[in-house]
Amino acid sequence: MLVDGITCALIGAGLLFFWAGTAGIIRFPDTHSRLHALTKADNVGLGLLIVGLALQAPDWLTLGKLAMVWALTLVAAGTTAQLVARAAITKPAARRGPASTAAIPGDTVRSKDRAS
Amino acid sequence: MSGLAATGFDLMLCALILGAALAAIAVRDLFGAVVFFIVYGVFVALAWLRLEAIDVALTEAALGAGLTGVLMIGAVSRLERLTSRDQDQDAAGPQSPPTSSAARIATMVGAAGIGGGLAWGFITLPPSAGLQLAVAENLAASGVENPVTAVLLNFRGWDTLLESIVLLAALIALWSLARDQDWGRRPGLRQHARPGGVMATFGRLLPPFGFLLGVYLVWTGSAQPGGAFQGGTVLAAVWLLVMMAGLKAAPRVSSTRLRWALIAGPLLFIGVGLAGAVAGTFLGLPTAYAKPLILTIEAGLTLSIAATLALLVLGAPMAGDGLGPDQPDKEPAR
User: Nearest-CA neighbor of A45 among A65, A23, A64?
Assistant: First the structure.
């Protein structure tokens, strides 16, 4: 019963991070702060979910698989974040046309900085 | 899951599937549409999981969402590069011909007709338990314990053989798009990973896990969900990762070793089928040798599927940025 309560609390906290991360992706102004929000959801949010679920794991095998899911997601999310962040610096307007670049003020400023 | 929670989850999943599908069609931005298509694939994989069709769920996640998604992202980015080049040359930019409302209505009527026909066909189906019982009765003779693998490689091996040949045909069609002077080059764009950078480290870290998972999926396919297509997709992803991380160059399309890897699966399959034909039935597997034969075919198929899928993602052999004859080559022909 106590374990169930802790699981609920941990998963609830994890969901809060996912919620905050999602809000950040939608509301933050430029690529880098959006990435910051996204990685918080991926790393901490998923971590809390996994720890919460681990308390319910019936055996060590399940526990190992859960740990593996978290570790692999951390590595993948960290790498992707680095690559996206680098791409945002080196070619800010590479993917989108002029219209959507204007919607990301931070990127436009950065490209001007680099040009000057 | 208990009754109410399960129903609630299923209803939510249905709503998410429909929402993602609608968004994929309605979004005007091509890249956004592809993203929603991938999200849709992940939700559909979850739905298959809820229906306890784990084999289908794995395939949908790996091929439907993952690989098809990557192919579509590749297509969109190529389209964008082509469009921006055209914009450079012509200030007016690309003008797509306006779609007439007659064409739109015709498309709608056609789609509605096909949808209605399918729905009618489904509703008028006679009630039937399907082939589940027949498969269960003959499972002992198939040489494997996973009924899906038994159907795919024994009872209906014919379909799987043709599928593997279709994949090969798709690759040949893709390669036939290469320009004559590019033939024999390495397929795909040049990769720009910095040596010692994040991508290179990722490319060293992940392949051991991916390789293990891919081989495990194939091996376990005889008794549990898994198989050559799912495992092959994972292995293709590992190979692509190694190439994208700049650790190994893509093979030249003229490489003999590559050609053998591409045809190993279908060739083995046809060989076993012909041996069966000599013994009585084409593709018939004698019960005594069924398991080793199936594992052999799966091993060959895995190699071929992994190689074919990875090369499909890489694209045709090309020079420079692969934008066709209008673009002057940035690197001199070797």
Answer: A23
B66: DSSP letter:
I
Distance from CA of A79 to the nearest CA of B (A): 6
Q: B41 is written with which tokens?
A: 């694939």
Start-to-end CA distance of chain B, whole Å, equals 62
Cβ atoms of residues A56 and A3 within 8 Å:
yes
In chain B, % of residues over pLDDT 90: 38
Q: Who wins on pLDDT, B37 or B186?
A: B37
Per-residue confidence (pLDDT) for residue A42, from 0 to 100? 77
A–B: how many Cβ contacts below 8 A?
A: 18
Token pair listed for A9: 């609390």
Report residue B239's pLDDT band, with 50, 70 and 90 as the boundaries.
Answer: very high
> What are the chain B neighbours of A72 within 8 Å (beta carbons)?
206, 209
d(CA B26, CA B28): 6
Surface-to-core class of residue B98, CB atoms within 10 Å of its CB (0-12 exposed, 13-18 middle, 19+ buried): exposed
- Centre a 10 Å sphere on the Cβ of residue A74 and count the other Cβ atoms it contains: 15
The mean pLDDT of A49-60, rounded to a whole number, is: 91
- pLDDT, chain B, mean: 85
Q: Residue A77: count other Cβ atoms within 10 Å of its Cβ.
A: 17
CA–CA distance, B108 with B114 (Å, rounded to integer): 10
pLDDT band, residue B89 (cuts 50/70/90): low
Interface of A with B in 74-93 (CB under 8 A): 75-76, 79, 82-83, 86
Query: What number of residues does chain B have?
Result: 334
Q: Which of B65, B69, B59, B76 is nearest to B305 (CA)?
A: B59
Q: Which residue has the tokens 């509703």?
A: B123
One-letter amino acid of B282: F
Give the C-alpha separation, A43 to A63, whole Å: 18
**Is the separation of the CB atoms in A34 and A107 below 8 Å?**
no
To the nearest whole Å, the CA of A6 is away from the closest chain B CA by: 20
Q: Is the pLDDT of residue A105 over 50?
A: no
Strand, helix or coil for residue A91: coil
pLDDT for the residue B321: 52
Mean pLDDT of all residues in B17-43: 93
* pTM score: 0.80
Strand-pairing partners, residue B187, are: B317
The answer to whether residue B1 neighbours chain A at the CB level (below 8 Å) is no
